[in-house]
User: Fold Acetyltransferase from Nostoc piscinale CENA21.
Amino acid sequence: MINLRSATSADLDLLRHWDEQPHVIASDPNDDWNWEVELEQTPDWREQLIAEIDDRPIGFIQIIDPAREESHYWGDVAENLRAIDIWIGKEADLGKGYGTKMMQLALARCFAEPSVAAVIIDPLANNTRAHRFYERLGFQFVEYRRFGEDECFIYRLNRLDWQNKSPANHSSS
Assistant:
């Protein structure tokens, strides 16, 4: 069973280590997360979470309100959206269904807020494995967009589409 907990400054070394892993770099090559600063800040528009199995950290999830996020990374976006970043820390933990369960838990968190209309994500345009992953979860391609040096595909999962998936796909257990 996967559990999500808040990331803290005690996770600094772990997150730095994960950031150095080739599969993590490949999915997010141009971002500096500035963990030393970000882990100390807890704005009400963001959650930074560590996914664990039996107290063993396996991945990271960030959920933001893109309309309120300080850097305006997403530009002008509608209210009542959430955006998710997710990764598995160790390559050995890939392909075991952990990412799917982590996303299901993250989506349940997002849609637990009744005003949230949809969730958006921005995998790299060349990351076809991520595209298939998000499409299996019900996300639909919206557009190509360039963020700085990164060419990305924007995907969106509307609340109604999420609700129409089987209940097991969005239980909060």
In short: The domain at 2-170 is CATH 3.40.630.30 (Aminopeptidase).
